[in-house]
Amino acid sequence: MAFNFASKFRKTLIIPKIQNPSIYLQYYTTTNNINYPTKQEKKLTWNEYFALRRKRRLTERFVTVPTTIGGFGFSFAYVASREFDPTPILGQDPFVIYGIGTLVCGITGLLMGPVIGSSIWKLFHRKQVKLMEHCDREFYKHVQKNRADPSLHSLRNPAPDYYGEKVKSVADYRKWLRKQREIERKGTFHLGEEN
């Protein structure tokens, strides 16, 4: 019981609070808000994780198409319904400014697509969200620990997939590891030749 209580509260701050003639101690506790999967919950295997990750990315990409078209469409409808005033805006022709505004709205739709797609994926996969977040953290810890040193990269020897974004399976992860080791080997080998 005491161990469970101690593990829930990470840090206790004691801040003296001065009131009239006496001093009162006020205790504040902070807890760890990261929800790790419990032992009763099912754990994802790495193959299941990569399959769910692929589905999440596909959802994000599919939603990007309508949000981009919607951004262009709504901004074009707004611009088409307005009367063009021939006076320059910021020293430019109004047609150019409206065109730039339409382009900016389309790019905003393009950037909002993955955010909305991720939200839709989380809505339909509520049971796996916590497990996926835990696996994402673990995967990126592995990537950060095993990737090649950035100072070894050059134009002749570029970094292949620095964040592990192209990894779609365990076999791809092994290939990624081999490439990182090759970069380390080539970078340290060529390091002595440049002097």
Helix content: 55-70%
Largest sheet strand order: 1-2
Major pleated sheet:
2 strands, antiparallel
Name the average pLDDT. Answer: 80
Beta-strand share of residues: 5-15%
SSE pattern, N- to C-terminal: HEEHHHH
Radius of gyration: 27 Å
Principal-axes shape call: flat
Class computed from helices, strands and strand pairing: mainly alpha
Tell me the distance between the termini. 63 Å
Counting H and I runs of at least 4 residues, what is the number of helices? 5
Report low-confidence residues grouped into runs of 5 or more: none
The tally of strands reads 2
Protein name: Presequence translocated-associated motor subunit PAM17
Subcellular location: Mitochondrion inner membrane
Function: Component of the PAM complex, a complex required for the translocation of transit peptide-containing proteins from the inner membrane into the mitochondrial matrix in an ATP-dependent manner.
Pfam family, one: Pam17
